[in-house]
Specification:
By secondary structure, the chain is mostly helical. It has 13 helices and two strands; from the N terminus they run H-H-H-H-E-E-H-H-H-H-H-H-H-H-H. Bound molecules: iron/sulfur cluster.
């Protein structure tokens, strides 16, 4: 929704990164916080950050008091400053991401390099990385990087939801954005064996998606995520619900008990 408010691909990319990076918690509360953030950034978020040196004071004033869950306005300003320095150097987030991708040929390695550079640019020398910044830009190789993978899905795939702006990464290289709904359903459907929603679970889910649709594995992500968000499933067999559920033929919770003995 927010991405489609802009025409310039540079603005779509930046609005998408901000929306994906803050994509946690309640959608209705997040929507209001994102609206306030994008309003402060003006008609062209890219222009505002590209000219960050002259916009910094205005942005800090416009966003003072902004808060979303445990992310205060100070962390948001750090993030915007880091993004500004990347845009001023590389012109786009895609240009920086592609440096890592072309160097490694691999989305996980490129994602980690991208986040590391952004953490480095967001926090001034000598300052420690606070919890909000580490949450927004996760460190280490255990995280499933759900929000960055969501952003990549929006940028690389193209359909009624995904924008398809980045042409250099084949869609069969994308990793699934593993949210809680997709993790839970992935386990119920036998697509994930891992017991916790970490990177291992994300890799298992992506491999299952790839097996089902090698050319476009993430075509399953949005339907599964939204099925989970609708909260029709109560994670146990309820005949009134399960008999009408489209996932029943493959849901492990809805299969008959094996005969005793
Ligand atoms: S069949 Fe029942 S338990 Fe399985 S996903 Fe559907 S509603 Fe949930």
């Amino acid at each position: 929704m927010f991405l489609r408010s802009y025409e310039d691909p540079k603005d779509v990319e930046l609005a998408g990164f901000l929306a994906a990076t803050l994509a946690f918690g309640s959608v209705s509360v997040l929507k209001g916080r994102l609206e306030a953030l994008l309003l402060a950034l003006g008609p062209s978020p890219w222009q505002s950050l590209y000219h960050y040196d002259r916009e910094r004071t205005r942005l800090a004033d416009a966003l003072s008091g902004w808060k979303y869950r445990f992310i205060p306005s100070e962390a948001l300003i750090w993030l915007l400053g880091g993004l500004a320095r990347i845009l001023q150097t590389h012109g786009s987030l895609e240009a920086l991401f592609m440096q890592g991708y072309l160097g490694s040929g691999e989305v996980w390695a490129a994602s980690e390099a991208f986040l590391e550079r952004l953490r480095h640019e967001a926090v001034s020398k000598g300052q420690s990385l606070g919890r909000p910044i580490l949450f927004l830009l996760p460190q280490g190789n255990a995280s499933p990087l759900k929000r960055l993978n969501l952003f990549l899905r929006w940028m690389v795939r193209e359909d009624g939801f995904d924008c398809g702006l980045w042409k250099g990464i084949p869609k069969d290289r994308l990793c699934a954005p593993l949210d809680t709904h997709v993790f839970r359903l992935g386990r119920q459907l036998g697509l994930i064996q891992a017991k916790t929603p970490g990177r291992k679970a994300c890799i298992q889910l992506t491999e299952s998606f790839l097996e089902a649709c090698p050319e476009d594995p993430l075509s399953f992500d949005m339907p599964l995520s939204h099925f989970g968000m609708m909260r029709t499933c109560s994670r146990r067999f309820e005949p009134g619900v399960c008999l009408a559920c489209p996932l029943k033929p493959v849901c492990m919770l809805a299969q008959p008990e094996p005969p005793e003995g």
